[in-house]
Design goal:
This protein is an alpha+beta fold. It folds into two domains: about 150 residues, PurM-like, N-terminal domain (60s Ribosomal Protein L30, Chain: A, 2-Layer Sandwich), CATH 3.30.1330; about 160 residues, Phosphoribosyl-aminoimidazole Synthetase, Chain A, domain 2. The protein contains ten helices and 13 strands. A hairpin with a 5-residue loop joins strand 2 and strand 3. The structure holds adenosine-5'-triphosphate (ATP) and magnesium ion. The site of adenosine-5'-triphosphate (ATP) has 15 residues, from helix 1, strand 3 and helix 2. Synthesizes selenophosphate from selenide and ATP.
């Protein structure tokens, strides 16, 4: 029998096992789009449902309309440790995976765990804590957890594949934005810089953990009830990256009022102290050719591009109780999709 010299749960700093962390470890948006470009197009013959949302718009989840008038949603997300605490990491990863279902206007139905674990380096009871966190959040969302898949992996990874349902006529799509509509953001930014500081120093930011474990269920439900048709969630590509994707898919432009964007306490200090992830810098570089920065300086732009993990919804419409941070406008002929003012 193999014996492990793995440290006890409380002694382990899980973020030290991750090269990146959370959604900041996503493949950069430009590289991802190049990699999946060849997958766009072909349709299977005899499929029992109609593909309403597929790869071409890079939306949050796939949507298939069944003949009974239901849309089935499918999405998956997993990443390396974003915080040191195993239970919190599990909760954050599950809230993040479920978020793509909410970002489409749906309700999660059943989730499967996806786990990568360095089994000779980290005790499996730590993985059990991660899974416990995930299940607790899924159950809070009213979602079954009914299986999964686990592999030996040099870097720990956790997430879920989630199936949900939605009304096909009331989806929140990322390509349904229209000029003149206000933009609402339902969680403050700054998760990326605080997580980066946590990884570097071990300081714990409970308010960031609270934000990341909060479900996007209520604002999504409210948006659907109010007749909103366009939204996405703000994750690894940052507000600027996800807004660029939404504006591009919708064929519109977008304006961000930088002074109205909310930030978590400590975010500006973390940025000033240099805790910026490579993912955030890549986000800004990717968006820059399509960005009119106005008078925003580099620090402001880095915060707006900060790679979020389990961030809020970016809704093309008003959601009571959450700040309006800009609006959609007509498309600009010069290729700029996002203007900061
Ligand atoms: N390996 C892959 N094969 C096919 N499609 C992929 C692959 N990786 C990502 N995609 C697709 O690319 C698009 C963008 O992915 P991305 O992960 O940024 O969006 P997302 O699912 O909204 O995730 P999140 O909200 O967690 O950032 C999605 O439509 C996704 O399904
Ligand atoms: Mg998403």
């Amino acid at each position: 029998m193999t014996t492990f010299a793995a440290p006890a749960t409380s002694a382990v700093r899980l973020t030290q096992y991750a090269r990146g962390g959370g959604c900041a470890c996503k493949i950069p948006p430009g590289e991802l789009e190049t990699a999946v470009a060849g997958l766009i197009g072909g349709e299977p013959s005899g499929a029992p449902g109609e593909l309403m949302v597929g790869l071409d718009t890079g939306d949050d989840a796939a949507a298939v309309r069944l003949q009974d008038g239901t849309a089935v949603l499918a999405t998956t997300d997993f990443f390396s440790p974003v915080v040191d605490d195993a239970y919190d990491w599990g909760r954050i990863a599950a809230a993040n995976a479920l978020s793509d279902i909410y970002a489409m206007g749906g309700s999660p139905l059943v989730a499967l765990n996806l786990l990568g674990w360095p089994r000779t380096e980290l005790a499996f009871d730590i993985a059990a804590e991660v899974l416990r966190g995930g299940i607790d959040v899924a159950h809070r969302a009213g979602c079954h957890v009914a299986g999964g898949h686990s592999v030996d992996d040099p870097e720990p990874k956790y997430g879920m594949a989630v199936t949900g349902v939605a009304d096909p006529d009331r989806l929140l799509r990322n390509d349904a934005g229209r000029p003149g509509v206000p933009l609402t953001l339902t969680k403050p930014l700054g998760i990326g810089v605080l997580n980066n500081r946590h990884k570097a120093t071990g300081e714990v930011f409970p308010h960031a953990v609270d934000t990341m474990t909060e479900l996007n269920r209520e604002p999504a439900r409210t948006a659907v009830e109010l007749g909103v048709r366009c939204a996405t969630d703000v994750t690894g590509f940052g507000l600027l990256g996800h807004l660029h994707k939404l504006a591009r898919a919708s064929g519109v432009g977008a304006v961000v009022d930088a002074g109205r964007v909310p930030y978590l306490d400590g975010a500006r200090e973390a940025l000033a102290d240099g805790y910026v992830s490579g993912g955030t810098r890549r986000n800004l570089a990717w968006v820059t050719p399509h960005l009119d920065p106005g008078r925003a300086d580099d620090a402001e732009l880095l915060l707006l591009a900060d790679a979020q993990t389990s961030g809020g919804l970016l809704v093309a419409g008003e959601v009571p109780g959450h700040p309006v941070i800009g609006e959609l406008v007509p498309r600009r002929p010069d290729g700029v999709t996002v203007t900061v003012r």
